[in-house]
Amino acid sequence: MTAHAFLEYALQRDVLRFGEFTLKSGRTSPYFFNAGLFNRGSDLARLGEFYAQAIVDSGIDFDLIFGPAYKGIPLAAAVAEALYRDHDMDRPWAFNRKEAKDHGEGGNIVGAPLEGRVLIVDDVITAGTAIRESVDIIRAAGASPVGVAIALDREERGAGDRSAIQEVESDLGMQVVRVARLTDLVTLLEQTGRAPEHLDALRAYRAEYGV
Ligand code: OMP
């Protein structure tokens, strides 16, 4: 199963860790996924493969790949490359600057012109705050965000009782493509009998913030 292969890889590279972490949402989590630790050339190549496979399997229709600054930029580049290399899909890609540029070509978007149906590539969705910022940037440029591809769906509640993913799908009308979900991590630990103490903490966390 691709999700399990991906999680095994993330555990092996220490990208996925157990402990006590404070999230952007203020929640205290027993695990954290730090995509920035995919910091070797081989990591980018494999990461691109995992995302590209999930994107193709989802059947999502899109014109352009967008990587939100900063962490989405190398992800979007790796995905654009892998879609071309492995699936013969040659798509334009772009990213935003966080700072406005007042010389040279100007503008906050770098790469291909931001137009058409846009697929955002990002690392993780927890409460769904980061993704909303990307949607605003894409709409402001006159393009249509149609989906978001992420490595890990933490399957948590958003602002209300629904999951953050459900909110993104119904409120923003976007399709969410994920390589792996929290459920996959729980089953992986269950099936392999690994890290029983972490498994209990994951279940307790899911009972509190999951849907
Ligand atoms: P939301 O904006 O709440 O959806 O959180 C997503 C962002 O949180 C990601 O883009 C990361 O910057 C960060 N994050 C992780 O990178 N890994 C995690 O396991 C959890 C978070 C987080 O803070 O929720």
Automatic annotation (TrEMBL):
The keyword Protein biosynthesis does not apply. CDD domains: PRTases_typeI. It catalyses: orotidine 5'-phosphate + diphosphate = orotate + 5-phospho-alpha-D-ribose 1-diphosphate. One of its GO terms (biological process) is 'de novo' pyrimidine nucleobase biosynthetic process. Orotate binds at residues 32-33, 126, 154. Residues 45-166 form the Phosphoribosyltransferase domain. Pfam families: Pribosyltran. 5-phospho-alpha-D-ribose 1-diphosphate binds at residues 24, 70-71, 97-98, 101, 103, 122-130. Pathway: Pyrimidine metabolism; UMP biosynthesis via de novo pathway; UMP from orotate: step 1/2. InterPro entries: OPRT, Or_phspho_trans_dom, PRTase-like, PRTase_dom. GO terms for molecular function: magnesium ion binding; orotate phosphoribosyltransferase activity. Its cofactor is Mg(2+). Belongs to the purine/pyrimidine phosphoribosyltransferase family. PyrE subfamily. Catalyzes the transfer of a ribosyl phosphate group from 5-phosphoribose 1-diphosphate to orotate, leading to the formation of orotidine monophosphate (OMP). Homodimer. This is Orotate phosphoribosyltransferase. It comes from Thioalkalivibrio halophilus. The gene is pyrE.
